[in-house]
Each structure stands twice: as C-alpha cells, then as structure tokens.
Amino acid sequence: MRYAKRIFNFILKNNKFYIVIIVVLLLIVIFQWMVPGYYDYNQISTLVYCDKNPSDQHRYLLFPMVTIVFDGGLGNQLFEVFSLLGLALKLNRTAIFNSEDWILHSKLNLLREQVPQVAERVISIPIEIPESSRFIYSPACCHFQFSPLLSCEQSKYLVIDGHYFQSHKYFSSIETSIRKWLNPPQEEEKLLKKMIRRKDEFRFKICVHIRRGDFLTDSQHAGTASNFTIRAVDHLYTQHPGLVYLFSNDPGWVREKIAAHLDYQSDVKVMETSEAIKDLYFAQIHCDAVLITAPSSTFGWWLGYLSKNQSSVYYRDIQETEDMVKHQMVEEDFFPSTWKKLGMSQNGLIISK
Length: 353
Hints:
With about 350 residues, the protein is α/β, with parallel strands linked by helices. The chain contains 14 helices and twelve strands. Residues about 30-35 have low confidence and may be disordered.
C-alpha cells in the first residue's frame, strides 16, 4: 500500500511530464496515419510467363520510378521516364504512373515544372494487383537489359521492377520524339540567342560540364578533377578555338580552380542558371562540342545527348577515376557510340581512347 501511494504521488507531481509524453505519442500515431508509406510492389506476383496467344485487352507498363520517389535530379528522372516510354513502345503497351503510389505523385513537381511536355506523356491510373505481373531487373544503373519474355507476357499491368534504367538503348526508338519534346519554347529560344554577342555568333562553342557537390561526399561518384579538366579544355580549344562555357553546380570552385588557369580567359564564361532545363536548352541551341568531366553524371550526359553535334561529345574515361559506378556500368550501353572517350597519360597529355 505504501509503494502504491508513493507511485501515485509521483505521478501527481509529474503529471505535466506524462501529459507531454501522451501528446507526443498521439502526434506520432496521427502522423503515421496521415502520411502514406512507400508503395509495396512486392505484393505483385513475379510469375511472368510467355503466352503466344496475344490478349485483346489494353495493356500497361510501369516502373516503381525510384529516381522520382527518392528525389533524384532531372538527369536521372529523364533517363527513367524516357526508358519507360521507349520500352512501352517496344512492348506495345501504354506507359503509366501508378496513381495509388501517393509518394510518387507527391514528387512529380520537378518533372511537371521543368519538362511538362514529357510528364504529360505518362498517364496516371490505378493498377489492379490480380491482373499484374512483376519482372525483376538487376539493380545495376547503367546497362541495357531486355528479356524476350517481356514481349509475350500478357498481363494487363506489367511492372518492371528495376533501378535507374540509364541506357540510351531503352529509348533509341523515340530519339526523334525526345529531341522534339525537349526543344526550348519559342520565347526561351529567343532569349538564348540573345545570350551570344553578334560577333560571337559563328564562333565554335565548347560546353564543359563540371560536377561537384554531392559527388564529393556520397562515396559512389567521383567529382570533376581540376587537372584533367584544364588539360582537356586546352586540348579541345587547340583543335577548335572559340568560346568555352563552363556549367557547374559549384561556380565558385570553377572560377578558382578551372577558369583562372586557362590562358584564354576572355573566351571563357562560367554559366549560372536557376533551372536545370535551361542548361539543356542552351546545349541544343549553342553547344558545338560538349566535354563531360564527371563520367557518371547523368545531367552531363543529357547536355551531350541534346547538343548540336553528336560526333563532338567527349567524356572522361571512368576507369581512370575513383568513381564506384564504373563497377556497374557497361560503357557501350551508357555512352552512345559516336561519342569520344578521353584519358590522361601520366605526363598529363590528353589522349583519345
């Protein structure tokens, strides 16, 4: 009885503390109830099989869209969406977003704002679990995978459960459409043309993509190295004297470590844009050559892919870097065959590979 009385008195003296604890617990429960979790694609059967008798029902294709769900940048999202559209065409299916995936739909703003003409190509509808099949891909980012089994799988909803889909081979059949969808609007094109002085209009323009930021800390990617970049820019400028545009997410570092060490500084401009899509617009209108200095950068890849001359896109040999992506990359699947690989010898010479 004495101990029970002590406990009761303790609770009375500390009732504010316990009220706070109860309120916090209630808030946690309410938050978990209101905020949806990640959609569980594991509930979909992986029993994929080939049926030679084609179904007459309309069929759909979807990805879990991990680059959107986990807030990937525009370069990553473009790879995944265009791969979805390219595979849907190949499989005679309609590309869709799963409208029951609430987290996916809460994170479509980047795509809708930057490239609305692309986002609208993918409709959103709910999927029906009993009429769905799931095909699991290797988690590697950068190589092309295609199973003939997918062509004769007749499920109404086919989920290809993979990651990133970073190969141009997924969307080679819609390349012309991609370039059309990503064309700058007429007003934007006028502004872009005004960025170049009239006397510089016909000079050769080298666009250099430099990636720093999270590439320095994520333990997966290798950021741009200044020594390679300076020498590679010199190499291209010697071949094609003109203007050099440096694109980067770290302009201060670029000015200090790159631009200040180039002997033709009057021909060099560090580019600062507020929206990623505007850099891609610039590449289409002005870039005669593109140099990708961080070889696993998907945004650098898109600068090259959308530039004017596909035989003048250069990228650093990823095998010369500490970039961990090289262990899951098939280079001929990631880099188009017309692009040129550059390396650097021990004495600092830039060499073609």
